[in-house]
Design goal:
The protein has 410 residues and is an alpha/beta fold. Helix content is 40%, strand content 16%. It folds into 2 domains: 226 residues, Rossmann fold; 131 residues, Response regulator (Rossmann fold), CATH 3.40.50.2300. It is built from 12 helices and 14 strands. Helix 1 runs parallel beside helix 6, helix 4 packs parallel to helix 5 and helix 6 crosses helix 7.
Amino acid sequence: MKKFNKIVSVALASAMVLAMAGCGSQKAVESSEAADISEIPGSSVEESSSQTAGNAEGTFKIGGIGPTTGGAAIYGIGVMNGIQLAVDEINAAGGVNGYMLEANFQDDEHDAEKSVNAYNTLKDWGAQMIIGSVTSTPCIAVGEKTHEDNMFQLTPSGSAVKCAQYDNAFQVCFSDPNQGAASAQYIGENALAEKVAVIYDSSDVYSSGIYESFAKGAESQNFEIVAAEAFTADNKTDFSVQLQKAKDAGADLVFLPIYYQESALILTQADSMGYAPKWFSCDGMDGILGVENFDTSLAEGVMLLTPFAADSEEEKSKNFTTAYESKYGETPNQFAADAYDAVYIIKAAIESGNVDPSMSVSEIGDAMKAAMTQISVDGVTGEAMTWAATGEVNKAPKAVVIKDGAYSAM
């Protein structure tokens, strides 16, 4: 956390210099990728004779969990695709220490109970490590089970602190407190607003966690939070009251630490009432350009902290985006990038820990845990990524703005 704050300060100061120079839950996604889970190697579930005996087949079996159907499918499909792309690349290059990778991705529909069921299915298949779950509440539920089994777990995008509460669990994404604090710092240091309103989901651990750290971070910045308006999962279609309070308070920027489907409604309703502040969000906003029947012109100028921008000129990002578009016929989102990095992070930990697929799940877990605090990974979502024993990642955040209907690096 301390290291993150130092990195943030440097990264955000650099962003200010560049700016002065002229400048990582919605539509239910239906796609061929959602239907083709069976095409992922190992996706047909097989019975394992022993979860603790290791894999005599000589392959590393990686289980993935996330929503590929339902309202959060755009997240899970991106993760599923990102995992498979990385697995294919690594296998084509000779595998990890000569061993192949095999992936099996299970749909949890963004539901905690179904996520646990998916984990049990993957255990029966013989999974030796888990990438997932994609969203925070299911990830926390699965974390209880992986902890019991001492199975290594790496979530690409579960950002709640409890997603990494046990020593076997790590995150590719920033935790909620880091997202909130970094957002406050970015808004303040780039002088984006004097008066800020916040609209957040008090019933959601992701949203409320970011809001709390944002409010604390704002105390040391040169802007004032003039309105903080909550909604809940039972009341997330009409935001007229929250928007009116923000407008009446004179907020020139509205911070939305929420998912993109509610964000689309808020932008639409703000437009209908003639309210046009600046908008700032976090990784949950990624996906708003794909919301059905949403006027994407309303999202022009929306800013968000995210670890990935598809139009980045960085070599790793360009190569990943090109490969993803070639394989899946669409532009990758941040969740796909996080998952892609997750596989390469696992590769680095396997190599550092001298992990062998014949080892038991618990033995692999112990080796991977020790390796994670020793490795440094240059990925699509961050350079020189490292991990604390708490499971939190250290990397510099990036900001993007929606410009001409696409995410553009700031």
